[in-house]
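User: I'm preparing a small set of examples for a lab meeting where we compare how different chains pack in three dimensions. I only have the primary sequence for this one, and I'd like the structure in token form so I can line it up with the others. Please keep the answer compact; I'll paste it straight into my notes.
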Amino acid sequence: MRRVMRRYGTALLVISATVCFVLAVTYAQEAGKQRSSYSPVVIQESFASIMTRMKAAKPAVMKRHMDLLNERYDLGDRPAEGVTMSGGKPVQADVRAKLPEGMTWQKLAAMEPEEIRGRDLWPAGFYPLPHPNHPEGGMVFPQFHIDEIKRQEGRDLTRFDLDFDLPDHLLPDFPPPIFLTTRPDLGDVSQGKVVTIDNYYELFNGILNPKQLEGLRLLLTPSPQQQFNQTEDRRSERPSRGVTCFDCHVNGHTNATTHLVGDIRPQEFRHRLDTPPLRGVNIQRLFGSQRALKSVEDFAEFEQRAAYFDGDPVIATKKGVNVLERGSQVHFMAEVMAILDFPPAPKLNIYGRLDPKEASRTEMRGEGVFFGKAKCAVCHPAPYYTDNLMHNLRAERFYEPRMINGRMAAADGPIKTFPLRGIKDSPPYLHDGRLLTLEDVVEFFNLIQQLKLTDDEKDALVAFMRAL
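Assistant: Understood. Below is the structure token output for the 468-residue chain.
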């Protein structure tokens, strides 16, 4: 009997241990599927395998996203007559968001938010805009910028898994002019060139002081970034020296490079980021996608520590975080950003309002709508047309939450009031670039604020914003 008990007891112990092991493995596997705030650090797949797999998937990924854009928007090239950006590029005209079949903007504006939501009539182009591959994310550069940096520096910003999505005619000037608060007499100091590490000294020696020259050099020096670095989980074919501040904020402005904000989890709730201009940061007081940074110095320092790596300091350490010295490097970079000026606005007086002797009748009427019926000036007061605050538009009043190509379209939460000075130079609009033209902006806010503007008032409002 004892032998039997010993035999079965041993068997039971083995079975018990096996069950415990299986349960532990199963638990670990299930735990591995749980959401995590962290990116995977140790990659278990070779770089060659990752690249082969993602290259093969790229056509389907891009087709899915471009199908969405074409369903949402009219992407045609239709410039506004006689209206250009500061560098001469034509400004695009017309509302580009498509309406549901049988609907008009006037009919939609007459409805209450509950009715629009209940009947599922919110225009597709007014939903949050996903990244070209939202589950993957990361910096994606327009082709014209990739080509210019490769020509000047031999540095390749091409991603093997993704392409930029919006057509060139809907993007800002390239290269954009550079205006300085310290030397307004010089006008555009870029000489029509994209400023890089190769030409900055030639262009700015004798215009900037020694601190500013060094700050500009740092803004043009590549640093490792999540997709562009030396590791096996990069998204460039060759190991990369990284990206520069001015790869997104080209010439201290923007080329509409897109990315995902680093300070939201999980991935599907992260906002697509439309790169904002650095022009006029000297009058701004809130920085970062959640506006947690209170100075341009904070912005200069923590962009490379956090935003470059999706807000993950563990990955930053792995890929090569560039820790800047606050008292010199950060200060020098911030001093350069603080002298990047808005473009000239010859129709505005010293108070930031239209000069009746310079402005057209339509522009004057638009100014009246802006400061009156449309209530734009509540958040965008003159002279720089920002209140330096954040506001929650609560667009989710108009639609049921839904997943769109990996992006959870729910609530945006509070977003920053961006300056409207020089606004015609920086399409697309809103924090994620979902609004392609100023006409789209007017229709969006006409619905959000329930303004019931007439067509003439809308046209006048667009004309006024183009004069800012």
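A couple of notes for your slides: Residues 1-32 have pLDDT under 50 and may be disordered. The two ends are 97 Å apart (CA to CA).

User: Perfect, thanks.
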